[in-house]
Amino acid sequence: MSGVAMSSGSARPAPAPDDPSLLARAAGGDEGAWRCVVASYAPRVFALVRSRCRDDDLAEEITQAVFVTMAEKLGAGGYDERGRFEAWLFRVAMNRFRDHARRAKRQASPVDPSTLDAGADTRPGPGDRDGLPSDLARLREALEALNEADREIVHLRHHAGLTFKQIAEVLQEPLGTLLARHHRALAKLRKVLGEPDEHPNAEHAS
Q: Please, how many CA atoms are within 13 Å of residue 135, restricted to the half-sphere of its CB?
């Protein structure tokens, strides 16, 4: 299996089609099919995890683990959600991040748990703010005003680029509930940032 080389960029290549034959070829050891799947999805998985942990090395490690899990599931026939590969993959990514966050909170870890967006107080210190553009620092602080569940929705939508239907599948929540929560989360972010609510109407499931 080829490695997953990532960077901190936010480029989002067009996803590969959720094509059972492509996934079957990747599972069977077809390097071309595997590279196609990785090239299509790894940057978005990395962007999602990086938005949560704020550490390039850790995001790379978790992204690698996600694709190892994907390869194992495909190879063992453990993937059976035909037509929902993208949602399945990002559910794996969310679970891997949650696992790491729980371990970091339970035991001493070389990764400072304060850098994890996992419900602990993650407000950046003065040194962190000095090293960030002011808008980015303000956005991070605004995100910390959300609860963990709403932050997940925002990250899946705006970093992973998933549709609301896919996010509903990832989080296994009713679509209507998720849309309402996303709308309230954005309204809260705009309020914290001092910006007007530009989208007062209900959002579409896209």
A: 2
Global model pTM greater than 0.85: no
Task: Locate 89 and state its tokens.
Answer: 């993959």
Task: Say which CATH topology domain 20-123+130-193 has.
Answer: Arc Repressor Mutant, subunit A (1.10.10)
Q: What is the 3-state secondary structure (H, E, C) of the chain?
A: CCCCCCCCCCCCCCCCCCCHHHHHHHHCCCHHHHHHHHHHHHHHHHHHHHHHHCCHHHHHHHHHHHHHHHHHHHHCCCCCCCCCHHHHHHHHHHHHHHHHHHHHHHCCCCCCHHHCCCCCCCCCCHHHHHCCCHHHHHHHHHHCCCCHHHHHHHHHHHCCCCCHHHHHHHHCCCHHHHHHHHHHHHHHHHHHHCCCCCCCCCCCCC
Give domain limits for the chain.
20-123+130-193
List, in order, residues 6 or more apart from 42 with CB less than 8 Å away.
4, 6, 63, 67
pLDDT tens, position by position, 17-55: 567 788 888 888 888 989 999 999 999 999 999 998 889
156-192, pLDDT tens digit by residue? 998 899 999 999 999 999 999 999 999 999 999 888 8
